[in-house]
Amino acid sequence: MTTIDNTASSQEKFDAKKAVPVILLFFVFALIIDNSFKLISVEIANDLNISASTVSWQATLAGLIIGIGAVVYASLSDSISIRTLLIVGIILICIGSVMGFLFKGSFALILVSRIIQTAGLAAAETLYVIYVTKHLPEKEQKKFLGFSTSSYSLSLVVGSLTGGYVSTYLHWTTLFLIPLLSLVFLPFLIKYLPKEASRKSHVDVLGLILIAAIATSVMLYVTNFNWLYIALFVIALGLFVMYISKSDNALISIDFFKNRQFISVLGVAFVIYTVQLGYIFMFPFLLETMYGLKLDTISLLLIPGYVTAVLIGAFSGKIAEFLTSKQTVTMSITLIGLSLLIPGLFIESHVIIFVISMIFFSGAFALMYAPMIDSCVNTIPTEKKGTAIGFYNLTLNVAASIGIAYTASLIDSVSYSQALYVLTIVAAVSLVLYRILMGRLKNIS
User: Fold this and answer.
1) pTM for the whole thing?
2) How many domains does the chain have?
């Protein structure tokens, strides 16, 4: 991708920087909506009288769509203008939101509505990064990309408060109306973003379908424990491996999976990131059941953990001066395991233990992200790092969706303390995998 220096380009009829605040605000808005819907699952379940496993699909499929949408929008941005894609995203957000509000009595239609809505939200979450790398000078890109990291952390705070307070004092269905505010961004996107010439591009539809089939079969299995879904998983995985081995246009080459470090770190990341949204999904169910708290209070109890994540993310560069990647990841996974085990042991003591737990849990994931992704791609050639990072982030979204699915199943079948023990075991398994796999590699410091 080429960068554009606004001071030197006489052919450009727009100031690239003027569009950044608009796209960034839309990016934050989309993240807030996405995070709000993750929190209100407990209210949807109560209102429609459905199980945690059933209601989890509105979060798991959304996560899957976000991951796949990132790859699709990234591919389409090479042939369709970012302005057009963002406008299409807003249209999808509004269609899905209106459908969700009108058909609020049917969970099946709510699910369809959330899929459409999330397909639109994915545009904002992907295209901001692409716009910055495509239209801003290289020397300024890091600064504006840094804004996206801060915005993500901010959206967790605002999204939790929005979901908690709207569902408590209005109704969870009202949350479907808030995304309609995205229409406010339309005139600014039309005014400030350029019209780009169309070019030929390729979207690996078959590859994305196979990834979706792999993830969905696993989610179906952990929800219903039907061995038929394992068979579907094996078939989909086999077809995916065959496809990327023979196709030159696959979204990722089979060569990536021959890189021992890449596949090792990817495997560990997949396991540990199933825990992340699993615990966050469980949090409101647990506090409502065990302590009788409403979502407005629960959303406030999440804030200290999210603020901790913001601060640790901001100082992650300084932390890296004192700890190696291996030390940082090992410490992070250990803290994640302890932040799940301790509240499991003292689940009926006091709600403050869960606030402290979420502080260490969120902080540990924030601490782990940079060294984990660096370890994953530092042996990948520079020209292929974009593909590697894209597939890594897609893997994390798939992992998060699967984590929500099996956690929801645990909520329906075992006690909360037992569910926390299972998440602790998953964290412990990821730590053992990391130490074994990384111990065999020379490039991990």
Assistant:
1) 0.81
2) 3
